[in-house]
Amino acid sequence: MGDDHPAEVQASSSCDWPLLGLLVARLRLRPGQRLVDLGCGTGGVGLWLARAHSVHLTGIDISPVAIGLAAARRPYFLPPGRADFRVATMERTGLPDGCADGIVCIDTLGKAHSPMRALLETRRLLKPGGRMAVTTARRHSAPSPWAERAAAVGLELVAEDARPDEPAMWRRLYRLWTDHEEELRRDVGDARTDSMIREARRTLPTLDARRAFLITLRRGSDPSGEPYATA
Ligand SMILES: C[S@@+](CC[C@H](N)C(=O)[O-])C[C@H]1O[C@@H](n2cnc3c(N)ncnc32)[C@H](O)[C@@H]1O
């Protein structure tokens, strides 16, 4: 995928060097704090950030296979005891209230059964003052829903950083898939290839109108920490 892509991270997402830079700048983690990676997949993004910030990592993913692979990658990034990975959903992580100084959620919130419920869960997990960084995309013409969405779950909108190179990255990836369909069939089998080619054909025509962002949300320093209704 070229020089913009940190090979070590092996992300199953749009994560590139510019995004890693934005995440470091926006999360503002300090050594010894805890980062939660929601929808961590095989763990590379959270592991890279936890090493860069010298923090502890908890990775959550719905897929036991992804969690097994993430745990196996831990020794390449962090010493023993600095990361744990759990099978759970981002809507119901099972983690304790106020355990996270930072939360990252890369190309995953849109896959939640209920994105608002997942955002309420992040509000529960964040310590007062803690930040969450989440990738998102919308059509060129659509207004940002994030100030309203953040307020609805008791979080503040800190920043909405444009990722102007993100649609081109998907275009390159989808063209690689369609140009190399036969090799894909050999490497990953017909079922997986059919689904990848379907995704490429469905999504390629929408990319010209796509605008991608990194959204940073913050839990205010409210000492009461009263829960928000999850209705
Ligand atoms: C596009 S991948 C991104 C993985 C990782 N964030 C990265 O950047 O490489 C989306 C991940 O979300 C996970 N996922 C989907 N729905 C989920 C849910 N409701 N709760 C937790 N994880 C979920 C999938 O299993 C998958 O690993």
UniProtKB/TrEMBL annotation:
Keywords in alphabetical order: Methyltransferase, Transferase
Keyword field contains Methyltransferase: yes
GO molecular function list: S-adenosylmethionine-dependent methyltransferase activity
Cross-referenced InterPro entries: Methyltransf_11, Methyltransf_Superfamily, SAM-dependent_MTases_sf
Domain of life: Bacteria
Domain Methyltransferase type, first and last residues per copy: 36-133
Entries under Pfam families matching the protein: Methyltransf_11
Claim: Coiled coil is one of the keywords in the record: no
GO annotation, biological process: methylation
Name recorded for this polypeptide: Class I SAM-dependent methyltransferase
Gene source species: Streptomyces tsukubensis (strain DSM 42081 / NBRC 108919 / NRRL 18488 / 9993)
